[in-house]
Amino acid sequence: MDGVPRVPEQRRAGSSAEPAALSFTVLGPVRARRGGEPISTGSPQQRALLAALLLREGRTATAAELIDAVWGEEPPSQALAALRTYASRLRKVLDPGVLVSESGGYAVRGLREGALDLVAAQELAAVAEKARGAGDLCRAREALAEALALWDGEALAGVPGPYAEAQRVRLEEWRLQLLESRLDMDLEQGCHAEAVSELTALTAAHPLRERLRELLMLALYRSGRQAEALAVYTDTRQLLADELGVDPRPGLRELQQRILQADPHLAEPTSPQSEPAATPVRPAQLPATVPDFTGRSSFVTELSEVLASAKGRVMAVSAVAGIGGVGKTTLAVHVAHQARAAFPDGQLYVDLQGAGASSAEPETVLGSFLRALGTADSAIPDSLEERAALYRSVLDGRRVLVLLDNARDAAQVRPLLPGTEGCAALVTSRVRMVDLAGAHLVDLDVMSPDEALLLFTRIVGEERVASEREAALDVVAACGFLPLAIRIAASRLAARRTWTVSVLAAKLADERRRLDELQAGDLAVKATFELGYGALDQAQARAFRLLGLADGPDLSLAAAAAVLDLPPEETEDLLESLVDTSLLESAAPGRYRYHDLVRLYARACAERDEWPPSERDAAMSRLLDFYLATAARVYAMERPGDRLVDHLEPTAHPGLDFADRHEAQDWLYAEAVCLLSCVAQSAARPETLARAIDLLWAAHDLSESGANSKGYEATAKALLESARRHGDARAEARALTTLVNVHHVSGRFEQAGQEAERATLLAQQAGDLLPVCWASNALGIIALYQNRHQDGEEHLSQAIEHFRTLGDRPGEASALCNLSRIHLATGRTSKAVALAQEGIDIYDAMGNTMRGANARYALGLALTQSGELDSAAERLHEALEVFRDSRQRLWEGMSLFRLAEVDLAARRPAQAAAGAEMALTVLRGIGGAWRRGNVLTVLGRALGGIGQTGRAQVCWQEAMGIYEELGSPEAEEVRALLTPVRAA
After folding, report:
1. What is the DSSP secondary structure assignment for residue 284, as one 8-state letter?
2. What is the DSSP string of 94-154?
3. Distance in angstroms (rounded) separating the CA atoms of residues 968 and 962
4. Is 406 helix (H, G, I), strand (E, B) or coil?
5. CA torsion angle for 431, 433, 435, 440 (degrees, to 10)?
6. CA dist., res. 839 & res. 883, Å (int)
7. Pick from 423, 364, 371: which is nearest to 392 by CA?
8. pLDDT tens for residues 649-694?
């Protein structure tokens, strides 16, 4: 950070704290405050004097120097007298002793710490430099952001004189240096997509600043936009030649060559060579090792030696295999803790859930690992291959231990291996991974009798075991020397002081003898769990059985209470007692989960012991009721007056109450995975199918959130298949209605139209009017996208009529706003504005904030086309704020896109480019290719407006490729944009 303006802190010696302290700003208008209250600093010339003194670093400035600073080479005849007058006026408003006269000149002295904003900025810049040198990029970025936030427009704004002008130039250059440093660190931490938007605007404002162009090229390249990155270089070279008659500097040319050569090192964030490599996060994710770890000394030594060899090898991988409950995880965690010192850059851990029906997806795990290693969410790519490549890049040069617990097979593990020198991986699995290349395989068998007895003794206590050694040997033998079985049995005994070891041994003697048949795998573990289950009382056992029936990854306390049909307080006592037995885990406060094997065992118990058997179905029906009733509450709070909730299947459970819509939204997104799992699980039975479909319909916000869109779509398809299998026309129509929205959000308009037509036909046959309303509304907006305006108007007119028949005012408003867009597309702008405003009036009258944002979005479009750009921007900004608050990523991105169109129409191409870039970032992974093509087209226009024609051409080429693949008519428009560029 060379060239930093230095102003040492000026402190008054021996001063005591005062409540009304003086403070000054020069990084903007020159202002003075006392205790936060503004002080008049007089005329521009008087402010010029104050600024000159504040920037003199506490030194005395002579009268001649100050006259030159204020007036330059042509001072007025009474300049000295005027200078003294200004000084006298300033002395009167400042604290005594601040403005002093000395040797015929003046100085500002005795300021308190932090009194001048420039000094605060200098200190923050120093903090950033120190933090970056220490590898703490997060702190460095924060400090630079704080420093840059101190600027309030142009430094020394409105201050006359040559001195102020020179300082303005110097301070602006320093600000840009700080900004470049912060952006450089943004790229080092993987915030490429966000940086593109800001850099696009900055290069438009400072077109000849090559460092900004270089950062923009790098950000684009790391965002997968190589052609645009190269186009930036082409634009820059042309601009420099035209304006200055020079070539780009060597650094920019070298970056272009590295991009052309697809240099693999460019794809990974790296600190400048002159600074230490940044290590922003040092994960320490290992679970706690058990205090009573016993035996396994040969395995500990063997695995420790393999891990110790990691420093000189490409990668050290050890795979520990064995049956469930044999102690694979305990051993691996213990060894990993012992080896921590050899891996100073951190330890990663994940339970891959390989023994269950739904094991962890590698791409999900990689996302979690990348976040743990300091990668921003926005910088994490979508595909498995890209995530694996970025993961290996982030680990390059670091020494990290990765513990992959409970793996399904080698295919699940391979993408998660570091693959770099100095790193190591420990893998546990129930299968022997002979197909994991280069792995050191360890087969973990049961404990020896001595080890098993020692583990039992450590848990139960030496005193109780010593007097009943033979009975203790009988216990561990009955457990098959399986560590998990021994631990459960010993924990039960330790918790029951009235039991003797002989009592436990007698109980085990009558249990399943198949514990010795270790090759049975799960059966051995199941027999072990039988020990804990048999010790439960009746209420605990019922809870254990029924809660294991739910498919979700965990259960909230409220959901568990619904399953058990008990009050929350009683449910919590039961669940906590199960946690104490280790048959249930507390995933977080108020949330509970099973280990995957325990869940299988609990379900087996439910099949065997639950009576009457119909109680199993009843429990799952209660869970479905809970989710449906609560999701309906969320929907009603977000959309007051919407009639959907009146047309849902009735429920026996009342659902949860929420204080406000934000709390309701938090519940919906927190429960998304569990809710979708419940829907999918309920799809198989005809008696729950209708409620499952209604639950998915009520939760359709999940389809537009991005994070849950794929899961929502898969669940909707499963419901549709089930409805068809059971020949239920009404259920099929409603399932199709949920899928129409999925296809619409994803940009699959042809498919959405087909499903909407089918939904309309089936719903009419079933006499179910609400899906007809929704489908007609959807068909109208789909026709708009496909330029079938007459069809669209007919569909929307029908939708309005249907919604009015139902008394569904919000539905009517939605169709009116969509009809507004049809009028807009056919040149009836005034009517379009009126229709959109009518929709807003309906929504506002009902307090429907979220849907009101959609109406404001529609009005913003109409106002844009009518030329009322300021009003259009206001409406779109209002919509954007609501969409962000409601976590509606699709509409947030579309609002940013429409605001970019407004900026373009208002001839603000730099702002338009920044807005379009933000839209691309928000819409990543949602909205479909057609919407991306629209944003790219506008981005190209904006880039052309700021002289970046090369990048503009790349954007248009990508957009045209999208449109041609989709067969969209917009391809001709983009082709016309490209034609002049090609001709030139």
Report:
1. B
2. SPTTTEEEETTEEEE--PPTT-BHHHHHHHHHHHHHHHHHTT-HHHHHHHHHHHHHT--SS
3. 8
4. strand
5. -170
6. 17
7. 423
8. 999 998 999 999 899 999 999 999 999 999 999 998 999 999 999 9
Is the Cβ–Cβ distance between 524 and 558 less than 8 Å?
A: no
Q: How many residues does the chain have?
A: 984
Q: How many angstroms separate the CA atoms of 575 and 580, rounded?
A: 9
Q: What does each C-alpha distance from 486 to 446, 464, 533 come to in angstroms? A: 11, 16, 14
The residues near 255 (Cβ < 8 Å, ≥ 6 apart) are 214, 217, 218, 233, 266
Q: Hunting for tokens 């041994």 — which residue is that?
A: 505
**Look-up of token digits 């009955």:** 478
Element (H, E) at 429: strand 424-429
Token pair listed for 14: 């021996």
pLDDT tens figures, 72-114: 888 888 888 888 888 888 888 888 878 888 877 888 887 887 7
Rounded to whole angstroms, how far apart are CA atoms 136 and 283? 14
Token output for 99: 């403005």
Judge whether 147 and 176 are in contact, CB under 8 Å.
Answer: no
HEC states along 642-687? CHHHHHCCCCCCCCCCCCCHHHHHHHHHHCHHHHHHHHHHHCCCHH
Q: Are 452 and 462 in contact (CB under 8 A)?
A: no
Sheet containing strand 31-34, edge to edge, reads: 22-25, 31-34, 37-39
DSSP 75: -
Phi, psi for 427 (deg, rounded to 5)? -125, 135
Alpha helices in 708-848 (DSSP H): 709-725, 729-745, 749-766, 769-785, 789-806, 809-825, 829-846
Residue 315 has pLDDT above 70, yes or no: no
Peptide bond into 75 cis (omega under 30): no
Angle at 210 between CA 209 and CA 211, to 5 degrees: 95
Q: How many CA atoms are closer than 13 Å to the CA of 42, on its beta-carbon side?
A: 19
CA 784 to chain centre: 32
Q: How far apart are CA 473 and CA 452, in angstroms?
A: 9
Alpha-carbon distance of 806 to 774, in angstroms, equals 12
Tokens linked to 539: 């209420």
Q: What backbone torsions phi and psi does residue 347 show, to the nearest 5 degrees?
A: -135, 130
Identify the three-state secondary structure at position 24: strand
Across 266-270, 545-549, 796-800, least confident range: 266-270
Quote the pLDDT of residue 980: 64
* C-alpha–C-alpha distance, residues 99 and 97, integer Å: 6
Instruction: Specify the pTM.
Output: 0.64
Q: Determine contact, residues 586/592, Cβ cutoff 8 Å.
A: yes
Spatial contact of 865 and 824, defined as CB atoms under 8 Å apart: yes
Q: Are 675 and 696 in contact (CB under 8 A)?
A: no
Residue with tokens 């929704």: 774
Q: What is the DSSP string of 289-344?
A: PPTT----HHHHHHHHHHHHGGGGSS-EEEEEE--TTSSHHHHHHHHHHHTGGG-T
What is the three-class DSSP state of 371? helix
What long-range pairs does 79-82 form, CB within 8 A, spacing at least 24?
Answer: 82/45
Residue 273's pLDDT is 36
pLDDT tens-place string over residues 128-159: 988 888 878 888 889 999 999 999 988 998 88
Per-residue tokens: 481: 């020397």
Residue environment code for 479-511, b if the CB has 16+ CB neighbours within 10 A, otherwise e: bbbbbbbbbbbbbbbeeeeebebeebbebbeee
